[in-house]
Design a protein that fits this description.
Blueprint: E1 4-10, H1 26-30, H2 38-54, E2 58-62, H3 70-75, H4 85-92, E3 103-106, E4 116-120, H5 127-130, H6 133-143, E5 150-152, E6 168-171, E7 180-186, H7 198-207, E8 215-220, H8 222-226, E9 236-239, E10 242-246, H9 253-263, E11 268-272, H10 279-285, E12 291-294, E13 300-305, H11 306-309, H12 312-323, E14 328-334, H13 337-340, E15 350-355, H14 368-381, H15 394-411
Parallel strand pairs: 1-2, 4-5, 7-8, 10-11, 13-14
Antiparallel strand pairs: 1-15, 3-4, 6-7, 9-10, 12-13
Helix pairs in contact: 2-14, 14-15
Bound molecules: N~2~-(3-carboxypropanoyl)-L-arginine.
Length: 417
């Protein structure tokens, strides 16, 4: 078989809750203190995967991390019983579900040694995300253990924040060649943190062996970050030769577009003007956090969250776009409301890897039967609800741990415990 795009979705973990941990992520802040529904959340994620499988797309999974993260609390000199509320919430977050932040991936045709390179994100800007990388690295080392085809790196060290694929885009010809890798970093986010540091992006480009002549480092606009676009994938999405982008996504938009056109003349830049969709509506609806996919029968489609259909300016613009003669011809809507309420849309939930599925550990690949088995574990073990005060309950910690263990057991991945 040949290399295809595989979407690895993060299975939404049993500890999914609304603790309001992400400054600059408006959904996370606005929903702080609400009661979450982990079981419904995880089943919504499974249905999204099922939807994409039925479109003929290749699908994989990444697993929830151990929560509460007792090892991390121990390194901080505390325990889940004794930790402050803030540390306990950080140790209990299910944020590893947003697999777009798991790693940056450079497909084999782009790298000097002809292997697909992966670097887990250090996510150092947010405490609740900063302890994800060891469990991510462990999974990547298993899933992509075939060293003839993959190279898995440790995360970028030091103070340079790296948020993974959420701040990375790849454009290429419709045959998958002549790729341009684009790293989007933040300089300032006004009142909010700029989470991706340019030095992290540069380090990844070097260690992945990318061609400097075909690698761009692009500043995200301060306006976008200040409006709540804490990651680039909230204002732009790329697939093959198509870039769908909000007018205010980049600091120097004209120069960026010119450079992309010079490197990839067949690029189609579909820009959404601020006059049609404001930054506020883009962020509210997560229009750009759609999965932009190439369908097996040809043509591209957007897999959008329901919130996009419910935002009048956005839906009007999308309907006009698909009626035109552009490259994006179909719209599909999926319900991932539980994740959306923490600022994670369809694209946040997946990590794209271009590879021959036969080279990936099969335990991380799914078909409908395996999704049925995953859904059954979720239905049997995931908590129905988590209220803020539940985070202090030992019974909930035990349930979250047992639920994850049951899933690992079902998938034959017991060595991840
Ligand atoms: O890092 N939310 C995540 C959402 C990540 C979305 N990913 C992409 N855009 N690729 C974040 O801000 C909220 C957790 C909480 O508040 O409990 C959170 O971490």
């Amino acid at each position: 078989m040949k290399a295809v795009e595989i979407n690895f979705d993060g299975i939404i973990g049993p500890s999914h809750n609304y603790a309001g941990l992400s400054l600059g992520n408006l959904a996370s802040s606005n929903n702080a203190g609400n009661v979450s529904e982990p079981r419904a959340a995880a089943l919504q994620g499974v249905e999204k995967m099922r939807h994409n499988l039925r479109l003929g797309l290749a699908q994989g999974v990444l697993l929830p991390h151990p929560r509460p993260d007792r090892a991390w609390l121990e390194r901080l000199g505390t325990t889940v019983e004794e930790a402050s509320d803030a540390l306990r919430a950080a140790a209990f977050s299910a944020s590893a579900m947003w697999a777009a932040n798991a790693a940056t991936v450079s497909p084999a045709p782009d790298t000097a040694d002809g292997r697909c390179h992966l670097t887990p994100a250090n996510l150092r800007t947010m405490p609740h995300r900063s302890h994800e990388w060891p469990a991510t690295l462990a999974q990547l080392r298993l899933a992509f253990a075939d060293e003839a085809h993959f190279a898995v790196h440790p995360p970028v060290p030091g103070t340079f924040g790296d948020e993974g694929a959420a701040n990375h885009m790849r454009l290429c010809s419709s045959h998958g060649e002549a790729a341009v890798e684009i790293f989007v970093y933040g300089k300032s986010g006004g009142p909010f943190p700029a989470r991706q540091h340019v030095e992290a992006s540069r380090a990844i480009a070097r260690t992945h062996g990318l061609d400097p002549a075909r690698t761009l480092f692009v500043a995200q606009s301060e306006d976008a970050i200040a409006a709540g676009a804490f990651h680039n994938d909230v204002v732009a999405v790329a697939n093959e030769n198509v870039l769908l982008v909000h007018e205010q996504a980049f600091e120097e938009r004209e120069a960026v577009y010119a450079e992309i056109r010079r490197l990839l003349p067949e690029v189609e830049i579909v820009e959404v003007p601020a006059s049609a969709v404001s930054l506020a509506d883009a962020i509210r609806s997560y229009l750009f956090n759609a999965q932009l996919v190439t369908l097996p029968e040809g043509g591209m489609a957007l897999i959008l969250p329901s919130e996009a259909r419910e935002t009048p300016s956005v839906w009007r613009w999308l309907e006009t776009m698909v009626a035109g003669n552009g490259p994006i011809r179909k719209l599909f809507v999926v319900d991932v409301r539980q994740s959306m309420a923490n600022g994670g849309g369809p694209a946040c939930l997946r990590l794209r890897v271009v590879a021959d599925p036969a080279t990936v550990d099969p335990r991380f690949m799914v078909d409908e039967a395996k999704l049925d088995a995953i859904a059954a574990v979720i239905a049997a073990h995931w908590p129905e609800r988590i209220a803020p005060e539940d985070l202090k309950r030992p019974a909930l910690w035990a349930q979250a741990e047992a639920a994850r263990a049951a899933l690992l057991d079902t998938l034959g991945l017991g060595e991840l415990t």
